[in-house]
Design goal:
- This protein is of the alpha+beta class.
- It has 4 helices and 7 strands.
- It has a 7-stranded mixed sheet, sandwiched between helices.
- A hairpin with a 2-residue loop joins strand 2 (46-53) and strand 3 (56-67).
- The protein is globular, with a radius of gyration of 14 Å.
- The two termini are 28 Å apart.
- The model has no long low-confidence stretch (mean pLDDT 96).
């Protein structure tokens, strides 16, 4: 598996982000969806990675720099046909290593509270993320679960 910084220009990546938005809309009301679109993922405070194997897109993940010490995980998504193969685990491991390399002391994320998001919450917990309150510009929302990990 090759994990690389991506400029979001390929049709495969665009379709993966569209799929991500469609699926989020099935499980969360619009006002509770915090998934970023392609233009938002291209902002200068965000680094976006994709995972590839033999020319096939496997998944993606991004980090948004909230400040010099704190990053937010965004857009972790595995292509449907590659789910259950450890893609998300490898992407999350890569992102945590990059956050440490950048000198972040903390990583946080927002994910959904419905049952659909349980596998993601379990994966984050395995990596040491703990439930916390809202951070950055988030507010309490019954459709959101906030998690954080100290990297220190």
């Amino acid at each position: 598996m090759l994990i690389k910084v991506d400029d979001l220009s390929s049709p495969e990546v665009a379709e993966l982000i569209r799929e991500h938005h469609r699926e989020m809309a099935l499980h969360s009301p619009e006002e509770s969806m915090h998934a970023l679109n392609l233009d938002e993922l291209r902002q200068s405070d965000i680094t976006f990675w994709t995972a590839w194997e033999q020319g096939d897109l496997l998944g993606c993940i991004a980090i948004k720099e909230l400040d010099a010490q704190h990053g937010e995980i965004k857009s972790m998504r595995t292509v449907s046909s590659h789910q259950g193969k450890g893609v998300a685990r490898q992407l999350l491991k890569h992102l945590i290593e990059e956050a440490r390399r950048r000198g972040y002391s903390r990583l946080s994320l927002e994910t959904g509270s419905p049952d659909f998001f349980e596998p993601a919450r379990k994966l984050y917990a395995v990596f040491g993320f703990e439930v916390c309150g809202p951070f950055a510009d988030y507010i309490e929302d019954p459709y959101s679960v906030f998690m954080t990990k100290q990297l220190g």
